[in-house]
């Protein structure tokens, strides 16, 4: 596609709320997205923090030591384990989102970190998503995701939503605790082929809604 035509198409897509993840899925490279953003500086165009991260390769990002360590371990198929650190190191959710695009061989497995920002893996295929013994600041968005296994064992979390997700193995939130006023797990219409373990978990349900305000397809609580 010629640059001028591509720029017009990108502008239209971004105006419609298309995410950087969807640009990659339809064949628009992160490099092109970054170039487009650079050409639009000073014109009112801007990327969200998440899109700005996704518009760069991880090698070019200003990663913290913890983020760089997590990236290297996840790419190698290992667990990014920070248990035992003086305090839980922060890892931006957008960095994990970029890693998910690279289809790491054993998925994303992190222990003992603080996940900052909204992790949005809706419709993403991933072998494993395991954020164990972590502090997860915002709701995990996993609607429509295709996962081999899902785990937030021992984590403090702000909610998990995986409506319509397909999970081949276990869903494990044993020992999970609230980090926010609402720490609910919504697996409405999900297909779970393994077991579900919520032993000793503590959840905080959303506020009750009046029946007339709940559409028929949303009777999950």
Question: Which key phrases capture this entry?
Answer:
single chain, 221 residues, alpha/beta, eight-stranded parallel beta sheet, three-stranded parallel beta sheet, 6 helices, globular, disordered N terminus
Q: What is the average per-residue confidence, as pLDDT, rounded to a whole number? A: 80
User: Which overall shape is indicated by the principal axes computed on the Cα atoms?
Assistant: globular
State the distance separating the first and last CA atoms: 48 Å
Number of strands: 16
Radius of gyration: 19 Å
Kindly estimate the percentage of residues that lie in beta strands according to DSSP. Answer: 15-25%
Separate helix tally: 6
Write down the secondary-structure element order.
HHHHHEEHEEEEEEEEEEEEEE
Low-confidence runs: 1-28
Largest β sheet strand count, sense and barrel closure: 8 strands, parallel
Helix/strand structural class:
alpha/beta
Approximate helicity band: 10-25%
């Amino acid at each position: 596609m010629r640059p001028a035509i591509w720029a017009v198409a990108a502008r239209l897509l971004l105006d419609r709320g298309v995410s950087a993840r969807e640009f990659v899925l339809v064949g628009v490279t992160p490099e092109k997205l970054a170039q487009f953003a650079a050409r639009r500086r000073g014109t009112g165009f801007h990327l969200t923090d998440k899109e700005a991260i996704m518009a760069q390769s991880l090698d070019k990002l200003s990663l913290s030591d913890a983020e760089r360590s997590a990236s290297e371990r996840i790419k190698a198929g290992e667990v990014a384990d920070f248990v035992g650190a003086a305090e839980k190191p922060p890892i931006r959710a957008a960095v994990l989102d970029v890693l998910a695009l690279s289809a790491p061989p054993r998925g994303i497995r992190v222990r003992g970190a603080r996940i900052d920002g909204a992790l949005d893996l809706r419709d993403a295929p991933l072998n494993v998503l395991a954020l164990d013994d972590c502090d997860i600041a915002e709701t995990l968005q996993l609607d429509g995701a295709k996962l081999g296994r899902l785990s937030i064992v021992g984590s403090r979390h702000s909610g998990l939503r995986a409506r319509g997700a397909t999970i081949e193995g276990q869903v494990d939130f044993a020992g999970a605790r609230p980090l926010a006023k609402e720490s609910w797990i919504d697996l409405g219409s999900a297909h779970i082929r393994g077991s579900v373990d919520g032993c000793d978990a503590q959840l905080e349900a959303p506020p009750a809604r009046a029946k007339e305000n709940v559409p028929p397809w949303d009777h999950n609580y």
